[in-house]
Amino acid sequence: MEIRKLNTLRGIAALIVFVTHFSDITQWLDGALGGGAGAYGVMLFFMLSGFLMSHLYLAQELNGRSIKYYVLARVGRVVPLYLLVVLTSYLLTLSGSDWLYHIPDSEALLGHVLFLYGDSVLWSIPPEVQFYCLFILFWLLAKNRRGYIYLLIVIVMLALFFTNFPRIYGDLNGVPYNQFNVLRSLPYFFVGVVFGLHYKTLVIPDYLRKHGFVAALCLIPLMYPELSPVTSDAKNRMWLSYEVLLVMSTVFFCVVFLVPDNNLLLANTVGDFFGKISYSLYLLHMPVILQVNRFELAVELKLILSLILSVVCAYLSFICFEKPLARLIRDRAHAQHSATMAISDR
Predict the structure, then answer these.
(1) What's the chain's Rg over C-alpha atoms?
(2) Is residue 154 part of a domain?
(3) What percent of the chain stands above pLDDT 70?
(4) What is d(CA 343, CA 325) in angstroms, rounded to the nearest whole number?
């Protein structure tokens, strides 16, 4: 069953990233909404991924058929548009244009294609894909040894903390890699996995399920470096701060478990729309903002124009490429799964 309010949360995550990059590029409001605060939107994306994979798959039986279906479904969701953007960026860069992203040579292209490295906003896709692989281990433990999932998460979290999130990056024969991005992202995937494990079983008393908990989303701008009342370095360390992890986990918990599913602010057609185009919006908004910023316009007009054009590009990408290809891959996986089941029943 679809958890509709998560569509809006996904759209909010994309808009956080959009607004942050717009603020950084144009210095809108003196950059108060920038300063790397787009990280909070990416954190929401990662928690959503961990939650949905845990919620959708861990209760299913793990076998060759289910793994194949899982892999094809995940690939269909993320990889096609990413590869199209990467390859187009590479060809444009070779022609002397950085209209999309800067991928200057075959080594950089290989780093992107192998999900080892990402330029600009593309950095978040390798951690996503690598976590898809790690999730199979969780799935393996889920049937009879579910408790080991918690133990594994605790061990990894402690190891990351005591090793200060090791900076593992560089290049191998010219091919760039950045595992630091993966390591710093893991806690957010883990939070999503734990919440997903308990979504169906955790009983929340009716007196706690209130629409007012949607206000927890207001905690996110309170962590923006230029807006935060926090005086520690947590607001600047962001990914490396367990305090930030606590706040973002609180926001996610409130939205998923405490806000009623029929909340009008989170369950509506606008939220559904932005949720559907969120991935395309995330990948395509930066080039649009950079191009619009070249115009001699008031910053408010740049904001409106950037948002409209980004949404249009994202919608066209979703309708013409992302959705059809994802459906084709998913339907193929489903057909193969059904055919295999039919053979096994004979």
Answers:
(1) 20
(2) yes
(3) 96
(4) 27
Q: Considering the domain boundaries, does residue 71 fall inside one?
A: no
The per-residue pLDDT for range 16-60, each reduced to its tens digit, is 999 999 999 999 999 999 999 999 999 999 999 999 999 999 988
Taking the whole predicted model, whether its pTM rises above 0.85 is answered as: yes
Q: How far is CA 239 from CA 38, 87, 180, 182, 219, in A?
A: 11, 29, 11, 11, 16
Cα-based distances in Å from 47 to 112, 189, 194, 303, 337:
23, 5, 10, 28, 28
What type of residue is 91? Answer: L
Q: Dihedral sign for Cα 68, 191, 17, 179, please.
A: negative
- In this structure, what are the phi and psi dihedrals at residue 119, rounded to the nearest 5 degrees? -80, 140
> What does each C-alpha distance from 139 to 185, 204, 212 come to in angstroms?
19, 26, 35
309 is in which domain, residue-wise?
A: 5-58+79-341
d(CA 228, CA 248): 14
- Identify each DSSP E strand in the chain by its residue range: 169-172, 175-178
pLDDT of residue 251: 98
- Is residue 49 assigned to a domain? yes
Q: Is 346 within a domain? A: no
Lowest model confidence (mean pLDDT) among 81-90, 252-261, 337-346: 337-346
What's at 328, amino acid-wise? L
* Cα 68 to Cα 63: distance, rounded to the nearest angstrom: 9
Per-residue pLDDT tens for 240-280?
999 999 999 999 999 999 999 999 999 999 999 999 999 99
At 225, list the tokens. Answer: 């470096």
Distance of alpha carbon 286 from alpha carbon 119, whole angstroms: 12
d(Cα 157, Cα 159) in Å, to the nearest integer?
Answer: 5
For the chain, the domain total comes to 1
